[in-house]
Amino acid sequence: MEKKIIKILSNVLEVPQTDLGEHSSQVNVANWDSLNHMKLVVALEEEFGVKFKDEDILELQSFKLIKFILSKYLK
Amino acid sequence: MKKFDAIKVGDRAEIKHLITQSDIDRFVELTGDDNRMHVDKEYAQQTAYKKPVAHGMLGASFISTVIGTKLPGDGALWFAQNLEFLLPVRVGDTLVVKAEVMNKIERTETIELKTEIFNQNKQKVTTGMAKVKVVEQKKVPTLSKSKKIKQHVALVVGGTGGIGQAACLQLAKDGFDVAIHYCKNKALAEEIQKKIVAMGRKALLVKADITDLHQVEDAIVKIIRHFHVITAVVNCATSEIPNIKLQDLEWNIIQDHLDIHVKGFFNIQKCVVPEMEKRGYGKIINMTTQAIEKPNAQWLHYIISKSALHGFTKGLAIELASKGIRVNCVSPGMTDTELIANIPEKVKLLVEAQTPLGRIASPEDVAGAISFLVSEKSDFLTGETIRVNGGQVML
Fold it and tell me: Considering only CB atoms, which chain A residues are within 8 Å of B359?
């Protein structure tokens, strides 16, 4: 799951995978603005076959939170 | 000045003590006086007193404490005492033991003290007069200036909390001897004491409810008697922070937080500042919180009391600047201590996500800022706040 999340973040935010890791979040990844955030939500939903609730969409603010919230959907 | 010369007729001192069953048991064990009037409820029931009475000399023994630790304190040689026991003392009574200098005899360097004990109803239970010789300490050869040891002693209030522990250990590493204050967790305080001693520093445990001025006074007297000086105070005292919705918030909850953070600090500074003033130098550091500047919902009680402490710090900094005492704050963001044990994992991750440095603070991060503020490197800072929040709040 972690590799897939990094790949999606890299593709959507146009940041090299080597610059991303478990500490990546909206405050330290340059292109993670509101528009790209929605693209990221769509890409994650497609890749993992889930449909995020509205409150979860707002909270997908970092690599760790994406992993944490996705794991609830994938149980 | 000689200690005897500094004592004036009219000087007073007092201590407070709650008489417990444990006191009676220990007195019996020590003296062997197991008179049934003191230890046997059924026996006492059949007398005019109806309930067991504490040993008169148990209460009177606290006169020794006042004389030996406060007036005149170290060097007191108590050589005469008369006593009259006026009323019975029982378990649960809070005794206030008072001493007042009535006379000074220059030739023999002795003082005469009126010694009285009152109960919580302000009834005098014991009265008497004491005679005490004030023995001066022999002068030891003064160290040459180059060899003069500058002793650094820090009091860490709330020394058994997460940040308090880290502060104690960091200060010991920085060369401080440490007075570890605790309220309940003696076992943990002893563990920290052992670690500090293993680091080659001295450590003293002091127990006090900081909302009680008498207990704080006793704690500071103990530290001064042990170390002779306090050069820094790090106030880490806090209580649990439950989430409380506005509609459920009662004033007594806010009052409890104000008591710990504001009244507690008021009592501490009241006792410590005169000691720092004597040396014209001191460092006082209060822990505030990022929540003052970036408030959390349902933490109104905590935010109110910590905001008050922040204002108190700045006001005190102005008052004490001319006396060489610096008063500053450390304002941590969410810190990985027991205080946040009940916060959901997702909330911690959200805080991490909003932190430019990508994690929540560790107690050691906070201790690092404390270390700077107690050091001479920060001597030109007062009324300042160092934010330890990984960049979450920048002002």
Answer: 23
